[in-house]
Amino acid sequence: MPWQYKISSLIGLPIGVSLSNGQGTSGILCGTSNGKLLVLEYLYRTQFALKQYDFYMIQDINGFPPCQIE
Fold it and tell me: Which residues, listed in sequence order, are joined to residue 49 by a DSSP beta bridge?
């Protein structure tokens, strides 16, 4: 399934983002705006940043799996 179809079901949830350049990032998916994916990422201590990723930079997005505590 193309990653764009996953957006609506993942808004407000933690996601992993695979970028076309082989790098990746993670954060809370806040939504989209003007062809950009909006992801709230943790920086340091109590600092967070809303980062914007152009759609053409994204290879895939996936929601985090549930914790499996045994």
Answer: 41
